[in-house]
Write the structure tokens for this entry.
Amino acid sequence: MRCLLMRGGTSRGPFFDARDLPADTAQRDAVLLAVMGSPDPLQVDGLGGGHPLTSKAGIVAPGRDGIDVEWTFAQLQPDSDRVDTTPNCGNMLAAVLPFAIETGMVVPDSDTTTARVLTRNTGAVAEITVRTPAGPDGQRFVRYDGEARIDGVPGTAAPVRIGFLDTAGSVAGSLLPTGNVRDTLDVPDLGAIDVTLIDNGQPLVVVDARDLGATGAESPEEIDADDALRARIEALRIVAGHAMGLGDVTEKSYPKMTLVSAPRHGGAIGTRSLIPHRTHRSIGVLAAVTAATAAVLPGSVAYDLAVLPPVTTTPDGSETTLSVEHPTGEFSVTLGLDPDDPTRVTRSALLRTARLIMAGQAMVPSSLWTQETPA
């Protein structure tokens, strides 16, 4: 089966043409599990990297009705046989247009190519721009080398510019699913905890790290090794899931947990993000967008800790660029603001990079292609 192994932002995984995969969802998921080598902690029998950040897959299809490309994000886990296509992943999104060009779905005709990409998981649409210079033979190609640097990825690469057109309520139905900028949740064995429950592309539970017995300066390894802290975080996540209208989230990969703190390195807000049971070595794209959004909302948990940059006026309205600090650096997010409504973010934009790592055939057991679909 044709496959391109690609890095998108700080994540990586195999990308497939949707037309090459089984149409039946259960059969498709069985194929993806076999490709990744799940469930197995090391994913030694597949392409997975033994971590949620490297246990992801992209499924890409030609677009229609004003959409250039459609894609479905699949989150797998090293130790689980579940394939979750409910959330989005803004890091993997950075590799979608390069994949579409590499496979001929999109044909570039200038030095840069911009495409509208629909995320089928959430219905969100993004405009993505990549560099596509002409080679000596006149054929245009995706340029992967360049000067852009993102924390969490070594070296530099060509920029991938992503503008999100409408991400509020991607999974939870609205930017603030409870209708409140701040909620107080009663968590078993913890008592009352103040949180901001928000979804601007990724459902997040934003909580002051100190309220869970942390500082917000811990390394991912320290958080992952602290069983008591992770138990408190998970207890809060379960209660928050119900409050956000997401039901029992015990087996779901959302909402993500984001512990916030005052910035320590000149940014706007400090973060430690869990996805949801392992600590992110940086922060996901849409988690960064959502955390930045929380930081500019007066009265939110993040707003109380943030050091906000100035707002500037542009031809499109007002905007501000926030540096979201994370364990391996920072992530800059530009937010468009409605000057008449301080709780409304009109747009978001950011920069990522991507790389084609390998092109070839992903081998899966032939029985997965011939098995009967369960009734």
Notes: The chain has two domains: 2-159+354-370, 183-345. The chain has a mean pLDDT of 93. The CA atoms of residues 264 and 270 lie 7 Å apart. The two ends are 26 Å apart (CA to CA).
